[in-house]
Amino acid sequence: MVHQPAAATMERLLHLHNSSSSRMSHHLYDPWDTNTSTVTTSDLSPDESVSPWDIILCVTGTIMACENAIVIAILFYTPTLRAPMFILIGSLALADLLAGVGLIVNFVVLYVFNNEVATLSSAGLLLATFSASVCSLLAITVDRYLSLYNALTYHTERTLTFTYLMILLLWVLCICIGLLPIMGWNCVREQSSCSVLRPVTKNNAAVLAVSFLLLFALMMQLYLQICRIAFRHAQQIAVQHQFMATSQASSTRKGVSTLSLILGTFALCWIPFAVYSLVADSSYPMVYTYSLVLPAACNSVINPIIYAFRNPDIQKSLWLACCGCMPPRFLSGARTSSDV
């Protein structure tokens, strides 16, 4: 009984010693202990993970820029491609090229220069360029309608000056849309008002989506009118059985089919995202936004492919630029106003 207190005391000392050793060991080897004097993994900033969606969009933007740069180069270095329809195609190609550059810039801003001014400028560039792409498609649709509705007076009424003026007004409007985020129409100060595409507010995104749907409805109405005129021409040609008329009918049908391909692709790529912008907000999972933005961006990848493979004049220039030759099928057949 005399040694029990001593034993208890010794046991307590051993317990304290073990606890002290354990704390010392944790202090020396725990890499997350900020009180240590050595450099630990907590002192090093971890590499920010890059979203695979952003990588895909950046690659898509690069493809967009390269493809449309080829179209612009062909239109610029081919003196014969100066008709109003080719100028409008050039406007569309320029808009899609800048949209591709905008996607690349947006990737750089997200992971390199992530600050408020760069973010707003990148968002403004994307808004302006994609708006110009949509408006250029509308202008092409109007041009196709006028070329069929006023076939006899089309070349005299549609002068280059009028076309350039229309494109200038189109781009001024789209640049003004692109300046909205940096002029204060953003959700940087109020994150709760953000849309699915930060830093655009939900109200602004809704206005843009509704405007897009209205423009597309106008394009579809013009397309229906084009089809009606084309069918009426086909009936007249079936009665006349003239070679020149048959050639014109074939060209008209090709123009209508190309236009339907453009508008159909445009609808499949853009309408889901426009509708989603109306009903969703920033609280929705980003994977939904990415999965709908990507097809919209791919529309600008598809546009130059359609023009390169469907337009005989651009095909000729591509063959001459690539191999310096021209297939025999291009040696006959003149370009008409209906070749889109």
Description:
This protein has 340 residues and is mainly alpha-helical. Helices cover 74% and strands 0% of the residues. It is globular and about 65 Å long. The termini are far apart. The N terminus and C terminus are likely disordered.
Task: Give the topology string: H per helix, E per strand.
Answer: HHHHHHHHHH
Range of strand content? under 5%
The main sheet comes to: none
Shape: globular
Radius of gyration: 31 Å
Instruction: Extract low-pLDDT stretches.
Output: 1-47, 334-340
Secondary-structure class:
mainly alpha
SS elements, strand count: 0
How are the SSEs ordered, and which strands pair?
Blueprint lengths: L3 H26 L22 H26 L6 H28 L4 H34 L4 H4 L2 H20 L22 H39 L2 H37 L6 H25 L1 H12 L17
Helix pairs in contact: 2-3, 2-9, 3-4, 3-6, 3-9, 4-6, 4-7, 4-8, 7-8, 8-9, 9-10
Write a concise synopsis of the structure shown.
This protein has helices at residues 4-29, 52-77, 84-111, 116-149, 154-157, 160-179, 202-240, 243-279, 286-310, 312-323. The chain is an all-alpha fold. It is globular and about 65 Å long.
Give the key terms.
340 residues; mainly alpha; 10 helices; disordered C terminus
